[in-house]
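tokens incoming
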């Protein structure tokens, strides 16, 4: 069974492996980021917890992966594409009632991440080279089938990020 600890370890591995001389190509934040945003943590506390390890400034940054675990045990993901100023919503087993709540929460995650990145503690060249940050348009990710079982859904989610 997929657990929060497994996803955090996977996120850490991806994040550390993406380091390059100009910085990481993508961020893969741990599920605790969603928990902290949901818990309305202060911006300074979020910066202290995530900036140096999970969100290193990078002029080559293209994506931010935001896995979310709900209290029900259901996983979904938001993927921010900085160049397109878009956030993709990936959810393999969604119902119409849950879609709006999940998309609204991804919007909160995107706006909190934008506030963090535009904080004065980040290098000014970061936002100049990556482009404007914030106001991400929410879009469904193509190629992700709905209503599939958890193992297959996880395979699609992890495979989608490498396309």
């Amino acid at each position: 069974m997929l657990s929060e600890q497994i996803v955090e370890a996977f996120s850490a591995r991806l994040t550390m492996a993406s380091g390059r001389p100009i910085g990481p190509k993508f961020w893969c934040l741990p599920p605790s980021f969603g928990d902290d945003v949901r818990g309305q943590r202060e911006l300074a506390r979020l910066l202290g917890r995530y900036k140096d390890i999970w969100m290193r400034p990078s002029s080559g940054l293209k994506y931010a992966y935001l896995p979310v675990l709900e209290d029900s045990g259901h996983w979904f993901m938001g993927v921010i594409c900085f160049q397109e100023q878009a956030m993709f919503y990936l959810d393999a087993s969604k119902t119409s009632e849950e879609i709006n709540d999940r998309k609204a929460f991804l919007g909160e995650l995107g706006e909190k991440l934008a506030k963090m990145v535009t904080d004065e503690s980040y290098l000014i060249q970061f936002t100049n080279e990556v482009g404007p940050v914030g106001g991400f348009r929410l879009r469904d990710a193509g190629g992700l089938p709905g209503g599939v079982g958890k193992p297959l859904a996880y395979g699609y989610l992890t495979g989608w990020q490498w396309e």
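note: The chain has one domain: 4-160.
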